[in-house]
Each structure stands twice: as C-alpha cells, then as structure tokens.
Amino acid sequence: MTYSEWFDSHAQKHKNIIDKLLAQNFTQEQIIEYFEFSNMVKHEKEFCLLYETQKKCHDIPYLNCYFCACPHFRFKEDGIKKIEKKTKYSFCAIGAKAGTLVAYGDAIHQDCSGCTIPHTKKYVEKNFDLNWKNSMKECRI
Ligand code: SF4
Questions:
Q1: Whose C-alpha lies nearest to ligand 1, atom 5?
Q2: Host H or E run for residue 73
Q3: For residue range 91-141, what is the model confidence (pLDDT) as tens digits?
Q4: Is any ligand 1 atom within 6 A of the Cβ of residue 96?
Q5: How far, in Å, CA of 4 to CA of 109, rounded?
Q6: Cβ-proximal residues to 16 (8 Å cutoff; 6+ apart), any chain
Q7: What is the distance in A from the centroid of ligand 1 to the CA of 115?
C-alpha cells in the first residue's frame, strides 16, 4: 500500500467515525476520549490493523489514536530527494528527536515508532480539528 492509498483510506475511516459521533451529539471532549486506544479497540476494530491483537503502536499507558497519522509527517510518493544512491520518501517536519530516518534497501523513510508526540491527550486537544484532512493538509508534499 502506498502512502497516498493509506492516507486516503484512513481519512475516510476517520470521517466515518466523526460523522457517527456527531450524529450522537458527542462533544469535542467526548470525541477525544472516544479515540483513546482501549475504547477504539472495543468499538472501531477496522480503524487500525493492530487492534486485532490489541497491540499498541507505542507502549504508553494513555494512547490516543485521533492523530494517526501525525500532522508533522511529510511524504512524497515519488520521492523528496536523492541521498547518495537512495531516495528519501518521508521525514518529520519538526525534526522530533524520538523520530528517525531508516533505510530499507534504496529507500529512506521516516520511522516514528519511538515518538509519542501526537498520541497524548494534550496534543490532541491543542491541535483538534473535526476534519482529519485539515489537520493533515501539509503531510502530502
Ligand atoms: S517523529 Fe514524532 S512528531 Fe515527527 S512525524 Fe513522527 S510522530 Fe510526528
């Protein structure tokens, strides 16, 4: 699956959940809490492949899934630039220390597995937007 395929498919899944919650008059606070991992695992099994095994993408006590993916992630399907003989396809716009670039063969991708920035409740509250695509509008370059 390409970055764009995942991005567009995830945007739709996110929108479907938001539409459902708004139809039930959820407040912003309730929506944010709905996206907490343990609730999502129970009620939104299709949202993330990891939910099937109840495995968190980051081993932290409170994990909010609202900002999967991260608004600071940048990607370009046909590559951003060449680094020696490799092509870089993604990076972190804020250069978060917990993130890193990883090479897979001749491709270089951003690896966010060590970074929990977008998964805290505080971050979601501060950057909340009902429209996931608005939050992610700078990701695809
Ligand atoms: S390293 Fe952290 S802040 Fe940067 S894109 Fe990844 S999750 Fe977001």
A1: 73
A2: strand 73-75
A3: 999 999 999 999 999 999 999 999 999 999 999 999 999 999 999 999 999
A4: yes
A5: 14
A6: none
A7: 6
